[in-house]
Design brief:
- The radius of gyration is 14 Å and the shape is globular.
- With about 160 residues, the protein is mostly beta strands.
- The chain is built from three helices and ten strands; from the N terminus they run E-E-H-E-E-H-E-E-H-E-E-E-E.
- The strands form two sheets. It has a five-stranded mixed β-sheet. Strands 3, 4, 7, 8 and 9 form a five-stranded antiparallel β-sheet that branches.
- It has a single domain, classed as Alpha-Beta Complex (Sulfite Oxidase, Chain A, domain 2), CATH 3.90.420.
- The relative contact order is 0.25.
Length: about 160
Amino acid sequence: MNDPLHPHSHDPNPEPPSLDTSFVLTLANGRSQTLTIADLEGLPQTAVFPIYIVSTGHGTSGPFTFHGVTLRDLLKSQMDVDAVPFTVEVISADGFGNRVTSHELHHPDSAGAILLAIGLDGQPLTRQQGAVRLIVPNEKDDALRQVKWVGQINIRLL
């Protein structure tokens, strides 16, 4: 079975799939809402440095400082993140995705917390750069866990 969220190589997509920077968050109980960059700006902000992006077909770039809200802080604003184990599916507007476990959110790697980035090196991310972008600081492969152009986040109970 082909799992679109299982880390896999993918062709680089240099163009945003749409101009819409909002995304849909769907909780395990089925409740969903559309969130915007302004919603993320209203949550506690975190910066992560140094981040290197190893892009398929583009080589390594960086170091960068990404800032935004940790994925854990976003979820804490919507649900009890300590109640039960869960998986977070983060899916790009172009269909590429990744899964993050609640364990990863509760025990961040020393490289930094998993982030929904809205800024890069002190400036807002452009739509071309992702606008809302999942940054997994301990990513060392070909950006298989980074999700550019976040379009959907789904919570699944384990």
